[in-house]
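Course assignment 3, question 2. Fill in each field.
Student: A.L.
Task: Predict the tertiary structure for the chain below.
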Amino acid sequence: MERDVTETMVGFARTVRAAGGSADPERVQAMLAALDHLDVLDPADVYWAGRLTLCADPDDLARYDRCFAAYFSGATARPGRRPPPPVVVRRVTVPDPGAGDGAEESGNLKAATASAVEVLRDRDVARLSAAERAEVARLIAMLHAGAERRRSRRFTAASTGRLDPARTIRETLRRGGETALLRHRTHRTRPRRVVLIVDVSGSMSPYADALLRFAHAAARSGRDVEVFSAGTRLTRLTRELRHRDPDAAMAAASAAIPDWSGGTRLGAELKEFLDRFGQRGLARGAIVVIASDGWERGDAALLGEQMARLHRLAHRVVWANPHKARPGYEPLTAGMAAALPHVDDFTSGHSLAALEELARLVAGAGRGSGNLGKGRAHA
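Answer field:
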């Protein structure tokens, strides 16, 4: 029991650190020492033990609350409105090009300032250094990739809308038969199911890690999220990516994928997905995201047939191709040409900013931007 508590709290501290908190090893030890004197089954004791030890400044408090809600309840906290955080500025010394080799010795330097996060947002993840990839991974873990909401068949009380006869009659009976207020109701809403299919073939290896981390953020943002990898075979990764800790989830997903950096058989894998899962309900009415460069080694006609089948089942189909961001890109490969007529949104997903745009598309924002028309025109 003690070991389980320690592993759980260390995982929570990693989540706080991944979100930008000050959860260094000394603070983690202080939290564990505090819990030795508290009731670990009492959420209030656990909350205050972590808050008083893992938070170093006022900016950590709201971040800690979000992480606590997401880690222990599986829900994302809704913080109140607060002023925007200060921009982190890093000072970089750049030699003057006209000063010659002795510029640094003569002190003729120009100071350049830029936001480190803003610089990384538009950088292609395939061209980042190890430190930059770690920073982008931390920022992806903080993304909220909630799904677009749909109308449910169930009703809830409302101030306006459709008349609710049952509640109106009950209210009338409580008042002795005197009609007072008419009661109304409206349909509830619930998030749509999201299905992510990530291409892990060799041509997608520079981007697969970032896209799987995006899938992990989506799985953490909503309960009705399914994740698959596709290469030479289809692998379901939903259970592995449910792990709260991003690094542990990625390690579990990597161990579960048998065809990492292999070939691509998108048509056959999409057919397997629809036969085994999609036709039974996973794809029906869902937002399906396919992250792939479209390099199909199998039959492109089969891919087109299965994309048409998927488009009939799904609410929306989003295709993320990292090569779309390259200057002069044209979707001329056989796979992309076959798939694009059945795609609703065509985006890139090659950088942090592109993944943020993908999250907005999944949430239903940014639609009607012309992506569909461009994709079909190229096809």
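Instructor remarks: The chain has three domains: 2-73, 155-189, 194-378. The CA atoms of residues 199 and 230 lie 5 Å apart.
Grade: pending
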